[in-house]
Amino acid sequence: MALGKQAKTLSDKQIKAVLSHVEGTRYPARDRVMVLLSVKAGLRAKEIAGLTWGMVTDSNGTVGDAIALENKASKGKRGGRTIPLNTELRAALVDLHTIALRDGKAGTDKPVIHSERGPGMSAASVTVWFHRLYDALGMDGCSSHSGRRTFVTKAAKRVVEAGGSLRDVQELAGHSSLATTQRYIQGDSDAKRKLVDMV
């Protein structure tokens, strides 16, 4: 994907607006999880569609502390990875899991993201869902990949504070190459100015 064609990253204000918007949808708990899987775990549309309850629950059947994304739900043969759960995302998954348990849809092989007409959504349906969401909010240039780019960019900016490196961001994103991860990261002009002054 050419640099000029990449999905836009989302500001904190935009993320807040998106989360506020989905509170009024027909399936607010599901929709909140979809948004947070994108911006707080960096999942692709295919991964959101392929995520099952077995990948987010522990041996006790409760939502765990990480997503154990399997290769079959990801991109490529080795796209599977473990992603620690962001606190906000975990809380949203707990809420959705409670609903799934009530409705008999919380089996380990059941999709986390249900559709209105069937058990789960396809990757294409997830992509369309995000397109409609951003279109309704007038967020031009945003797509299902915007949350993922936002996640990677934010993680790259904060990784040193966490005591890590870009290699950690690469592994969280499930990229086979560090060069791919670097293409996802949106630069920050203010940070560049501050950095040059520090040198």
Automatic annotation (TrEMBL):
Keyword DNA-binding carried by entry: yes
InterPro entries the record matches: DNA_brk_join_enz (IPR011010), Integrase-like_cat_sf (IPR013762), Integrase_catalytic (IPR002104), Tyrosine_recombinase_XerCD (IPR050090)
GO MF annotations, alphabetized: DNA binding
Residue stretches making up the Tyr recombinase domain: 5-197
PROSITE patterns named among the record's database cross-references: TYR_RECOMBINASE
Keyword terms: DNA integration, DNA recombination, DNA-binding
Family recorded in the similarity comment: Belongs to the 'phage' integrase family.
Coiled-coil ranges from the UniProt annotation: none
Protein name: Site-specific integrase
Pfam families per UniProt: Phage_integrase
GO biological process: DNA integration; DNA recombination
